[in-house]
Amino acid sequence: MSAAFFIQVFINGLMLGMTYVLIASGFSLIYGIMRLLNFAHGEFYMLGAFATYLLAERLGLNYFTSLALSMIIMAILGVLVYRLFFRPFRDQHDPSLVIALGLAMLIGGLALLIFGEKDCSVSPAFPGIIQFGGVTLSLERIAVIVMAIILMVALSLYIKYAKMGQAMRAVAQDREAAALQGIGVDATFTLCMAISSALAGAAGALLAPLFFVNPFLGMHAVLKALVVVVIGGLGSIPGAIAGGLLLGFVESIGNTFLGDVTEILGFVLIMLVLLFRPQGLFGHG
Amino acid sequence: MKPKSWKYSGVVGGIILCLIICLPAPSFSAPEKILKMGAIFPLSGRGATWGLAAQKAITVKQKEVNARGGLKIGNEKYKVEIIWEDDKYNAAAGRMAAEKLVNRDQVKFIHGSQSSAVILAVQPITEPQKILFLVNSYAKEVLAPDKPYSFRMVLTSNEILQGMYPWLKKTYPQLKTVAFIEPNDASGWSIEKDCKRIAEQNGYQVVFSQFYERGTSDFYPLLNKLLVHKPDFIDFTGAPPGDQALIVKQVRELGYKGKTFAGTTIDPVQFCKIAGVQNAEGHISNTHDLLGAYTTEGQRKYYDDYVAIYGQPFDPVTPKYHVYLDILVQAIEKSGSLDPTVVKDTMEKVDTWNTIFGPAKFAGQAYYGIKRQIITPVYVSELIGGKLVNRGTMMPTLP
User: Fold this and answer.
1) Which residue of A has its CA nearest to B254?
2) B95 and B225 assigned to the same domain
């Protein structure tokens, strides 16, 4: 096996990892701020992919316009879902969990009814491949990696420096103290839901041209997101990035050297992390 | 009092007269007879592409039978009613559906899933209760001498590849080595075993074989490893159509120039949309263009019936499922009975069945230990310029 082979393994891991980061970041954000395991997050990813498919393929809009519109549509949908389903059960952990699971099934079922069972595809915005030193990468994949980095940097900057981002951090640290300081907890939750849903929409839109779109994408995506955020630390965005990349590299290396057992490596990682650092790599105790 | 009672009598009489006029006249014809059947397929989840295709094909036949007054047993006609259950491509859901169909709906005939796990979970219910179970899944152990009420209505990888591999060897003699990618479950394991055995029987050297988890969409890591072995062609017969298209797209991106092959049916439009027309060029599959060469009259009629019900675009994955109800209706009419044991005996005895593919038969005594495997023609086609081109048809040989 040549050096090019190992570089390809590394690049495959990076690409796979960025895919997981895209899906898991919104999932982690919701848990960090709202303490809610939103199992419907995978369905927002699926809907984001379908929104892009409808806008780009059916209405013939430009891919980037479709991407932006998908994020906006998912943000609006996220706010509606929060207001209608999650807000009435705010601070009630078990009912919220059941609502999230039920919502995931409802959205998945409705999508199957509306869009049908067939796989759809979105035409690539960046067709073609580049090769260097025996390593191959499609331009689509490079675009996903770059876009994912831009989105993660923008999210981190927003949470760190923007007023509303700081409010989100305050609510995450101590909800009551934040409320006493005049921060609207409900408004913060609404914004958090909008941002995480927009991130899921972005993930769907970015990955749709790379893979395919069907109503069954959600469940697999949310399972991967769960693995990623448990490894990285529930509620931590840097944790989601680290967890996603780690899982991507482990799966890429596992696929190359271990073969069929790769899928269980994520769960082995979870066990190891829980044994030695139960709060996850970047989580707080 | 007298005039008042007359008045009341008049009102009551008027109401009765109105009711007589308004209510529909009672029917003196015999009530319509209904034959209830069950159907357990993946109507949601990852197997829904196949489950919904089966539902469409069986419904086409059901409508055809009911349009001619129903299936005929002696002098009586029975309309066919099908109770559809969703197994979600999951054994537990399939078993629950079977319990409901057998115990609550009291059906005696069940059309069954593409999932081997579902079929194997349902058979312990259907076999002891002598329910005729028509199945699809590819696992070899689905058919066995101790499962006389189970008939497989669709060709498996074993039969399909016994037709396609000799064709491949003859048509592309330069191909010598093969790599396999199959899903990591009961169906995938069974298919991989068939693929390896038949490839080796045909003189191909197996240089790589690996399973992947269903739901995987990034095949780069797996393909990167596969390409090191430089196979002349890659066979992914057990992968769902969407996964097949993704594998073709990604392996071409990684620079693979060899042939891609799958012994399953694909939707060429959908396949090329996902894989890209250039990447899909020359892809070999077990799909048949019903408007092209080697098409029977029955297939053309099926095409018309399908389009009349569901409209365009026609789904080429559906025709193989038409055989389910087609043969069952013929078997019930030939046996003149609704007793599953009598129908089973008829299915055993009759040599040739008329299907939309032409004459078909049940075989498999030597391979499965029981004659329960349908044998229909195997079709081979290639994707050329994004279009399906029929390349040949052959009958698989199965003792």
Assistant:
1) A136
2) no
Judged by CB atoms closer than 8 Å, whether chains meet at A16 and B218 is answered as yes
Task: Judge contact between B287 and B316, C-beta under 8 A.
Answer: yes
Q: Supply the CATH number for residue B272's domain.
A: 3.40.50.2300
Greater pLDDT, A109 or B81 = B81
Q: Out of A54-63, A87-96, B75-84, B128-137, which region has the weakest mean confidence (pLDDT)?
A: A87-96
Does pLDDT of B21 surpass 70?
Answer: no
CA distances from B256 to A127, B251, B252 (A): 17, 6, 5
Pairs across A and B, CB distance < 8 A: 85
Mean pLDDT of chain A: 90
Among A8, A115, A119, pick the best mutation site for testing chain B contact (most B Cβ within 10 A).
Answer: A119
Tell me, yes or no, whether B53 and B136 share the same domain.
yes
Residue contact A12–B253, C-beta within 8 A: no
Quick check: B255 and A1 CB within 8 A? no
Type of residue numbered B7: K
Query: Which residues of B57-112 form beta strands (DSSP E)?
Result: 71-73, 76-86, 109-111
Asked if B49 and A263 come within 8 Å (Cβ–Cβ), the reply is no
Chain A nearest-CA distance from B176, in A, is 23
Q: How many structural domains compose chain B? A: 2
Same structural domain for residues B387 and B340? no
Report the pLDDT value the prediction gives residue B187, as an integer from 0 to 100. Answer: 80
Q: Is pLDDT at A233 greater than 50 in this prediction?
A: yes
Within a domain: B197: yes
CB B290 within 8 A of CB B303: yes
pLDDT at position B22 is 57
Among B254, B267, B277, pick the best mutation site for testing chain A contact (most A Cβ within 10 A): B254
Structure tokens at B200: 């080796």
Residue A132, strand partner residues:
A135
